Every structure is written in C-alpha cells, then in structure tokens.
From TrEMBL:
Name under which the protein is recorded: Transcriptional regulator
Domain annotation HTH lacI-type: ranges: 2-56
Database matches in InterPro entries: HTH_LacI (IPR000843), LacI/GalR-like_sensor (IPR046335), Lambda_DNA-bd_dom_sf (IPR010982), Peripla_BP_I (IPR028082)
Organism: Vibrio inusitatus NBRC 102082
Gene: galR
PROSITE patterns: HTH_LACI_1, HTH_LACI_2
Amino acid sequence: MITIKEVAELAKVSQATVSRVLNNHSTVKEANKDKVYKAINELGFQPNSIAKALASNRSNSIGVLVGALEGSFFGNLMKEVEKKTRDANLHLIATCGHMDKKVEAESLHFLDSRRVDGLIVHADKLEDEDLIKLAKQDRPLVVVNRHIEEISEQCFYIDNELGGYIASKHLIERGHRHIGIITGDMDKMDCRDRLDGYHKAIKEAGIEANVDYVYHGTYETESELNSQLAKQMLDEHPQLTAVLCQNDNIAMTVYDECDLRNLVVGKDISVIGFDNSIYCRYIRPTLTTVNYPIRDIGINATNMLLNQLNGSKLPVKKRFNPELVKRNSVHSII
C-alpha cells in the first residue's frame, strides 16, 4: 500500500504538506499542490477517507436525507445540492427515508457514521423534537420543506397555506363553485397547510364547504390509492367542475381518470396541480400548477452549510412564496 511518506518523498515536500493538500487547506502553495498531485497520480496513491476524516475532523462530505429517490421534486433538489457541494470540493452522501419514521432515523444514523460535515434533511415522519435534538449537535444542519419554530433559522420552506389558497382562488375566479381536492398524506404539515389554504379561499368566497369533496391521498408517484380516489371522486360527485391536486403526481392520476371517461381537461373539467414539475409543460393540456422553488431552496440550504463550514459569505434566503403558473388545464365557466 502506497503511503503519504512515499508521496512526500517523490514530491520532495514534507508529509505535513501532503496532508494539507489532501485536506484542501488554502495555505498550500500552488507549486506544491502540483507536485503532490503529480506524485499521487504517478504512485496511484488512494487516501484512506476514514483515516483522513479522523485525523482532520473533516470528511469533506455533506449528508442528505430525502423522502424518495424518484421524481423531479427530489431530483431537482439533489441536482442543485450536488452541484454546489462539488463546486466547493465536497462530496454528497445521499440516503432515503421512504416516508417512514424508522427508516428516516436509520438513515440519519448512517450519515452520522460516515462523519459527514453537515446535514441537509428532508424528513416527513420524524417528530419536531427529533430534529430539534439533531440541531443541537455539533454539526451544521439545515431542514428543507419544513418549518419548526424552535430551529427556524435552520429551516428552508415555502408558505404552503398560501399555495393552497392561490390555487383555489384561481379556480373560484374562473367561476368554479364545486371544487374537489385530493390531498397528500395528512401526517405531513405541508399537506395540512395546503388544505387550510383551500378552506380559506372557499370560505372567503362565501362558498359552503363540502367535506365530501375532500379526499386524502398521497404524494407518491404511480399511487394506486390516488387512482382509486380519482375514480371515487368523479363517480360520487359528477357535479364537480374542478379538482385541486396537492401535487403534480396526483394531477397526472386525475388526467388518466378523465381520459378514461372521455372528459377533456381544460374544457369539461379543470385540474390544477402543485410543484410545477418539468412534465407540467409537456403534457396536454399543459398543467396549471403552483410553483415550488425546490431548486432555489436546495441552493440556499447548501449555501448556509458552506457558510458555516468554509467561512463563505454566500447569500441565503430561507422563506419562499409559491407562485401560480397558469397554463391550459383550467377553463372558465363564468
């Protein structure tokens, strides 16, 4: 096994210089960096990352916990985080919680065992107290898509109630009075907030709320539950003129059910989504939805970690407002 001593001898520098190069110290002269990297390549030296982490108390890695590894929502988040960390000469270690409290806890334990320098956490099922406790540890932490008052300075989120409100209000302004809604998992705060926004808009317009118009589904892609609910909703309430979906995955399911019934979205019935996933602009009719700026959240969350880890002074914004993206899936009945 090639050692640091052999690298130092070939590069004609001290072992301390080799160590500083491997740990990305800014004090190393460029000429010495070149010598060390040349020697590393010539010898085929492979540094022991665990030993390196123990020696420097830095692993040069960021740990990320997300809810799922499929779909554009988490894909866009991961893309931006990975790009920012790589630009900072760091690496990403990602794991998935699968919307299960036990799996989320196990995933965080795994990231801790890898001695990551900072954490970006998207946790659906862990309690607020669990994340507050995690925030007290001696490691930078940011929480995305969730607001916890006790650690609000470490949270990156949107106003989900406002998102549900502006989507519902748009339908009401187009003349709709019988508006069904399919939510995500009601264990999630963002689902409850979006439902509150729906109720707020309905009440504000003087429309009598109908609890039978509310169906509780899931954010998951290709969900059998959402398919069943879309069918059930349209069977039970043929008077509905619009369906508000708490994410774009749900909206795709409603599109499918409408197609089976020869209902033309944007003409016979209106559908509105949430997230502004990439496929919203490519399906027909294009989907009116609420933009969730997940890319910006990923960038700003990573910026905060880099500021803490490297003393950077990158801009950080924590609270974002949703925006309605009007396309062709909503029609007027006024």
